[in-house]
Amino acid sequence: MEHAIDLARTGKAADTCLTVIPWRDFADRAGWDALASRAAEPNPFAERWCLEAGLAAFDPGGRIQLATLMSGGKLVGVLPLVRRWNYERYPLPNLGNWLHANAFCGVPLVAAGHEHTFWRELLGWADTRAQAALFLHLEALPSGGPLYAALRDVCVAEGRPGAVVHRLDRALLASDLTPQTYFDASMSGKKRKELRRQFARLSELGAVAVRRSTDGGELGDWIAQFLALERSGWKGAEGSALACDPAKAMFFRQALEGGAARGRLERLTITLDGAPIAMLANFFTPPGVYSFKTAFDERLARYSPGVLLQRENLDLLAREGIAWADSCAAADHPMIERIWREKRTIVRASIAIGGPLRRAAAAALFRAETGAPAKGL
């Protein structure tokens, strides 16, 4: 399906065009790669190497579509779209951005300067192609970013009802302090002493080493070790480890391989006599970092290998060109929030689409869900 918004209605430039097509039919992969370097807001999960890995793993049938915005002959916006027949436990059809369980940011990849245009065109397309959808539902949006601010502006300018229907605060690392100073401020002297004691006891078991890698060397072995380490713990027992699901394992492999090929991946490992006991994968998208996945040997939990790993990960504070790191962790995570003291607010927002009657119905739904009038974002 492909549709260009009416120029007179939106007042857009004549060389700007929004299309929505099945993701397998989108051919401008070079343009998608180039867009990442011009993005107003970094999001590795929307870059081609990561999003295509997710689509290939979780949507092999090609059901998901890509909304893409072209301007001046260049790709300036990308967002995966899905039509859903249910919202939460209710039979309420809706349009939404597509995410999978291991994608921790849903903001579209949009070139700086095109933020308002992207939302204007996407909402205009949704107005005329809503079909059964009652509203547009957007998940995992950082509320402090330029894309969310632009969405809010467009909704206000067009008088669209909208509502934030869920929000959470997850751990963020953002400070001008040195890694050691930040660590000292985060943990009490008693806890730091205990961690030194645990490290000393761990060292009595064998040689402890920290390895950091930003290339693709021995990546296949590292991925296999990570999958095995994660599966050996409680996630494996519950069946939620990546290795328990072939599609998740496939995504993890392809995403890390793609990230390494583009200089986006850093691997951090603590080994004991050469065997990994704590492992972490970071995605670098300057000025931000996404701390994507971590695992540790739960048999050594008494030595806090996960905390030792995160202490090493504070080196991110000293990296040139890096201003913040998103933990990708659940809210109130008991370990990471002992160390990372800042917060990043992530929201789910619903936006009215279609004509006056559909928008009024959406506003009523938002009011019922939130218990307040749909005053906007």
Brief summary of the model shown:
The protein is α+β, with helices and mostly antiparallel strands and 377 residues long. Helices cover 35% and strands 26% of the residues.
Descriptive keywords:
Aminopeptidase, 2 domains, 377 residues, disordered N terminus, single chain, alpha+beta, 12 helices, globular
What does this structure look like?
- Helix 3 packs antiparallel against helix 10 (246-261), helix 4 packs across helix 5 (146-158) and helix 8 (219-231) runs antiparallel to helix 10.
- The protein is an alpha+beta fold and 377 residues long.
- Helices cover 35% and strands 26% of the residues.
- The protein folds into 2 domains: 7-169 and 346-370, Aminopeptidase; 176-340, Gcn5-related N-acetyltransferase (GNAT) (Aminopeptidase).
- Strands 1, 2, 3, 4, 5, 6, 7, 8, 9, 10, 11, 12 and 13 form a 13-stranded mixed β-sheet that branches.
- The chain starts with 6 loop residues before the first helix and ends in a 7-residue tail after the last helix.
- The protein is built from 12 helices and 13 strands.
Going by helix content, strand content and strand pairing, the class is: alpha+beta
What radius of gyration results from the CA coordinates?
A: 22 Å
Distance between the termini: 29 Å
Global shape: globular
- Largest sheet features: 13 strands, mixed
How many DSSP H or I helices?
12
Number of extended strands:
13
The CATH topology name of the largest domain reads Aminopeptidase
Name the poorly predicted regions: 1-11
Which class of the largest domain in CATH terms? Alpha Beta
Level of helix content?
A: 25-40%
Order of helices and strands: HEHHEEEEHEHEHHEHHHEEEHEEH
Per CATH, the superfamily of the largest domain is Gcn5-related N-acetyltransferase (GNAT)
Q: Strand-residue fraction? A: 25-35%
Mean pLDDT: 94
| Second rung of CATH, namely the architecture of the largest domain | 3-Layer(aba) Sandwich
Count of discrete domains: 2
